[in-house]
Amino acid sequence: MKPLEKMTKAQVASFCLMSFCSGVMIGVGGTAFLLANRLFDGAWGRLIGSILFSLGILAIVMFEMKLFTGLISDMPEMGVKNFWKLPVCFLGNMLGVLFASVLVYYSPLADNVVPQAQEMMSTKLNASYWGVKALCSSIICGFLITLSIGAVNYAPRKGLSTTVGVMFPIIVFAFCGFDHSVANTLYLFFYGYSWKAVGYLLVCVGGNILGGVILPILSIFRTWSTKH
Question: Domain 9-227 is classified in which CATH homologous superfamily?
Answer without folding.
Answer: Glycerol uptake facilitator protein. (1.20.1080.10)
